[in-house]
Amino acid sequence: MKIALMDSGIGLLAAAAVVRTLRPDADLVLSSDPGSMPWGPRTPDDVAVRALTVARAAAAHRPDALIVACNTASVHALPALRAELEPSIPVIGTVPAIKPAAAGGGPVAIWATPATTGSPYQRGLIKEFAGSVEVTEVPCPGLADAVERADEDAIDRAVAAAAALTPRDVRAVVLGCTHYELVSERIRAAVQRPGMPPLVLHGSAGAVAAQALRRIGAEPAPDAPPSGRLTVLLSGTEATLPAEALGYAEARLLPAVTPAH
Questions:
Q1: Where does the pLDDT of residue 261 fall: very low under 50, low under 70, confident under 90, or very high at 90 and above?
Q2: 257 secondary structure, DSSP code
Q3: Residue 138 Rama label (left phi>0; alpha psi -120 to 50; beta)
Q4: Is-catalytic flag, 177?
Q5: Ranges assigned E (strand) in 101-160
Q6: Burial of 41 (C-beta count, 10 Å sphere; 0-12/13-18/19+)
């Protein structure tokens, strides 16, 4: 079994770690183009072109499924990716976990990139899934970039700025960018208020990993032997994980790099 994941940068680590936990025997292909990120401010057409390039690099390794572990690419490029790769390679997109967050009651905050915050796409999801639940959209300028660079001070500043915009009574925060999941506990610490119920964070990594297995007819087998190999593609070229990635626990869950030939 081989599962590929794609993103502009290291945001794909969260979903890759879940796949690794669910199926330690699965080979993983991580395809990204960090030199072109962030994708959020780019035009939809530009995002689609770049996403197709990253996806084609992954597809060349003949995976059983491709996870689009990027909210921006899922918004702007999913139809193009599916038109090119399916049905031979199932393509699984990433959607902000607004529906499960709203199901738990409000108030809810959605942390997302400035380009996604207030977008017709996100507003549509809120209207469809949040119903009468109070939802606050919180822009997080610079947070994805800071996570990508593993810049601790910049992460702290971006998280603090977004926390200041988050209502004090929120019960749940939707992490609307895959990079944010890598610093979820720092977000929790910044938003949790003394005396309030424990804050619930809603990421997408678990859902997309489980959906990828369903699409290829595989069951979770967390006790399987950890025989899965890892291939890392940076701008289409086999490489190793960037040094910045290794600062995150999710990267350390992955197997050692084994070039796929």
A1: very low
A2: B
A3: beta
A4: yes
A5: 108-112, 135-139
A6: exposed
Which position among 13, 70, 135, 191 bears the catalytic label?
A: 70
Judge contact between 245 and 257, C-beta under 8 A. no
What mean pLDDT is predicted for residues 35-61?
A: 89
Q: How far apart are alpha carbons 69 and 215 in whole angstroms?
A: 16
* Candidate list 177, 201, 212, 254, residue with the active-site label: 177
Dig out the tokens for 219 from the structure: 């069951």
Instruction: Tell me if residue 140 is catalytic.
Output: no
Measure the CA–CA gap between 251 and 236, rounded to whole angstroms: 19
**Per-residue pLDDT at 260:** 45
Amino acid letter for position 86: E
Whole-model pTM: value is 0.94
Sign of CA dihedral 44, 49, 54, 60: positive
